[in-house]
Write a structure and sequence with these properties.
- This protein is an alpha/beta fold.
- Helix content is about 40%, strand content about 15%.
- The strands form 4 sheets. The protein has a 5-stranded mixed β-sheet, with helices on one face. A 4-stranded parallel β-sheet has the order 3-2-1-4, with helices on both faces. A two-stranded antiparallel sheet has the order 5-6.
- Helix 2 packs parallel to helix 6, helix 5 crosses helix 7 and helix 14 packs antiparallel against helix 15.
- It is globular, with a radius of gyration of 22 Å.
- The structure holds iron/sulfur cluster (SF4).
- The site of iron/sulfur cluster (SF4) has 14 residues, from helix 14 and helix 16.
- Iron/sulfur cluster binds next to helix 14 and helix 16.
Length: about 425
């Protein structure tokens, strides 16, 4: 497949406007604002089958169509580009922002045009200091050329784009928390409804899309929905996809391939295979740390929303973490639980207390002090979190825990019964 989203990555001065325009950049924006209505852009994206690349996989065009058709001047529309990429194992948006910022800006502008917004924000995680600087410089260049700001390309449409840096909280990637943070408040999620399209940031109609999602839009506008549908697995898993590969592989990194790439092809061909031949594949977390783990015997699967759902897990952010036979699954799950406990905002009791319980019990098992009833306790706490919280962070902590305990029960049991590690790599090694 030709490189689409990453076509500029690796080019000299890939962040400059000159290089971006030389490769056809901003032609889609020109086409949209001069020859298409906002509804026509939305319809083309709807037809393309593009689904959100941030994790939920919701139809992008459908999401845009929820926005009011008329703009009340007292309640302007806002487009928020969610660049708060904080999911462990996920680093694809960073590549786009740092290496091809004008693609991110053009996608943001097209999204704003489609929903009739005159202001867009790129909400970037606080730790991405370098990426924020790259985006700011690119925005200055675009502004100076009339691509951002007043009367864009002489079309009569005004749209300002701002970069807003978060303070480093994972929860601010959740859309209602992101809006709260953008307003200057604490990044607390809230219940929906009202949905952002009804009452979003500052109470105004708002659409929130992921960086990679919006980066697809210039290509859809330029080449059409049929072209986009011809990549991947039509009708529901279309287009190019960025996969983040990390863990025990020879060549970790971000890889672009069609949606629906077989997982083993990503690991063995693009990723160069397992890191050490003496340690075979044991498990893969396919979509960032918040999704259920797959055992090696479940890894003959295509990387798309529906194939992974059929296996009881999710594509999520497509952050694949590969674990070989040397991995202690108790230690791995303990790290994941620590992360979610630390990042819980504390509003809901099942998440605030439950994530703490998961971490403490996992730590107890990992350090050789596990009790006979601990596995039942982990399952019960996880089940009591799922579906009982304001936002999905609680589920993000509980779903991996359920799957780790169910699929690697022998390993957990061994830690409890024998105070030693089956994989031979946990901290218990030096203790017992
Ligand atoms: S689920 Fe957790 S992170 Fe989400 S609102 Fe509740 S306490 Fe906060």
């Amino acid at each position: 497949m030709e490189r689409i989203l990453t076509r500029n990555v690796g080019k000299e001065n890939s962040t400059s406007l000159a290089v971006y325009e030389a490769g056809g950049g901003y032609q889609a924006l020109r086409k949209a604002v001069k020859t298409m209505t906002p509804d026509a852009v939305t319809d083309e994206v709807k037809k393309s089958g593009l689904r959100g690349r941030g994790g939920a996989g919701f139809g992008t065009g459908l999401k845009w169509s929820f926005m009011p058709k008329e703009v009340d001047p007292r309640r302007p529309h806002f487009l928020l580009n969610n660049a708060d990429e904080s999911e462990p194992g996920t680093f694809k948006d960073r590549l786009l922002m740092e290496r091809d910022p004008h693609l991110v800006i053009e996608g943001t502008l097209l999204g704003a045009y489609a929903i009739r917004a005159c202001v867009a924000y790129i909400y970037i995680r606080g730790e991405y200091v370098f990426g924020a600087g790259v985006l700011e410089r690119a925005l200055d260049e675009a502004r100076a050329k009339g691509l951002v700001g007043k009367n864009i390309l002489g079309s009569g449409w005004d749209c300002e784009v701002w970069v807003h840096r978060g303070a480093g909280a994972y929860i601010c990637g959740e859309e209602t928390a992101l809006m709260s943070s953008l307003e200057g408040n604490r990044g607390y999620p809230r219940l929906k409804p009202p949905f952002p399209a009804q009452a979003g940031v500052w109470g105004c109609p708002t659409t929130i899309n992921n960086v990679e999602t919006l980066a697809n839009v210039p290509f859809i506008v330029e080449r059409g929905a049929d072209w986009f549908q011809s990549i991947g697995k039509a009708p529901r898993n279309t287009g190019p996809k960025l996969y983040c590969l990390s863990g025990h592989v020879k060549r970790p990194g971000v890889y672009e391939a069609p949606m629906g790439l077989p997982m083993m092809e990503l690991i063995h061909e693009l990723g160069g295979g397992m890191l050490r031949p003496e340690f075979p594949l044991k498990a893969v977390i396919p979509g960032g740390s918040s999704v259920p783990v797959l055992r090696a015997d479940e890894c003959e699967v295509d990387l798309d929303f529906d194939s992974l759902a059929a296996k009881g897990t999710m594509l999520g952010s497509a952050g694949l973490m590969v674990m070989d036979a040397s991995t202690c699954m108790v230690a791995a799950m303990e790290r994941v639980a620590h992360f979610y406990h630390h990042e819980s905002c504390g509003q809901c009791t099942p998440c605030r207390e439950g994530c703490g319980w998961l971490e403490r019990v996992l730590h107890r098992i990992e350090s050789g002090r596990g009790l006979a009833q601990d596995l039942d306790l982990l399952m019960s706490v996880s089940r009591n979190i799922i579906g009982n919280t304001i936002c999905a962070l609680g589920d993000a902590a509980a779903m991996p825990c359920l799957s780790f305990v169910e699929k690697f029960r022998d390993e957990f049991r061994h830690h409890i019964d024998h105070k030693s590690c089956l994989a031979g790599t946990s901290a218990l090694q030096g203790v017992c």
